[in-house]
Amino acid sequence: MTVSECRAEDVPVLVASAAALFAEDGGRHDPFMDTGWPAREGHSYYAGLVEDPQCLCLLADGGAGHLIGRLRRPDPLRPDAVTAVLESMRVAPERRREGIGGALVDRFLAWARERGASEMSVQAYAQNAGALAFYRAHGFRPFLVALTRT
Ligand SMILES: CC(C)(COP(=O)(O)OP(=O)(O)OC[C@H]1O[C@@H](n2cnc3c(N)ncnc32)[C@H](O)[C@@H]1OP(=O)(O)O)[C@@H](O)C(=O)NCCC(=O)NCCS
Asked: Which of 86, 89, 134, 140 to mutate to test the pocket of ligand 1 (most atoms within 8 A of CB)?
């Protein structure tokens, strides 16, 4: 299995994986999610991330998985924290439980540490039990809990 950084020509593959994530995760767990956003806006958004030195865009095996990370701007309320956010990740259903997600997260953690991150964070839907178990297996623990009601 190979993990590589996205180049400009890989953006359509990244958009396709992100669109599938929107459909599977946001579309299933958030009634307000606009699952058409990646098709409309995704190309310019993800092309911008690929060029952004504060962002990491990874593909595994040419598109079987993706991960997007970002160094957050300094927060004056938490001056000693340097936070790297795992913004998005997905592995194609037929390739899950082979260690691809783990390889992507390991690359993200190394990238974040190289850039001085003192914490790494990720958000997941409370109902996405698989993702929560995956992140827990990689050392992430609940810190803030978002509560919502309609
Ligand atoms: C979450 C996801 C990225 C994990 O990718 P993956 O390549 O299957 O993960 P790995 O094979 O590296 O799994 C590593 C470990 O994480 C845990 N894990 C992964 N998926 C799990 C699941 N569905 N249920 C329980 N534990 C899980 C296990 O401990 C696993 O080790 P094991 O297979 O030896 O038991 C993948 O399931 C996925 O793309 N899900 C749909 C999209 C999604 O939810 N993305 C995250 C949005 S926040």
From this structure: 134
* Mean model confidence pLDDT for the chain: 98
According to the model, what pLDDT value does residue 64 have? 98
Query: Residues lining ligand 1, CB < 6 A?
Result: 21, 24-25, 89-91, 96-102, 124, 128, 130-131, 133-134, 137
pLDDT digits (tens, 9 = 90+) for 113-138: 999 999 999 999 999 999 999 999 99
Q: Residue 6 has what pLDDT?
A: 98
Q: Which domains does the chain have, with CATH numbers?
A: 3-137 (3.40.630.30)
Cβ proximity of 104 and 63 under 8 Å: no
Mark the ranges of the chain whose per-residue pLDDT is less than 50.
none
The DSSP output letter for 9 is: G
Cα–Cα distance, 54 to 93 (Å, whole number): 29
Going from the Cα of 109 to the center of ligand 1, the distance in angstroms, rounded, reads: 16
